[in-house]
Amino acid sequence: MWDYSDKVKDHFFNPKNAGAVAGANAIGEVGSISCGDALRLTLKVNDDTEVIEDAGFQTFGCGSAIASSSVLTEIIKGLTLDEALKVTNQDIASELDGLPPEKMHCSVMGREALQAAVANYRGEEWKDDHEEGALVCKCFAIDAVMIEEMVWANKLRTVEDVTNYTKAGGGCAACHEDIEAILEKVLKERGETFDPSAAPVAKPEPVVAKGPLTNLQRIKKIEEVIMSFRPQLMADGGDVELVEVVDKTAYVNMTGACNGCQMSAMTIAGIQQRLMEVMGEFIKVVPASQMPKLVTIEEASHA
Question: In what residue span(s) does the NIF system FeS cluster assembly NifU N-terminal domain sit (predicted)?
Answer without folding.
Answer: 4-125
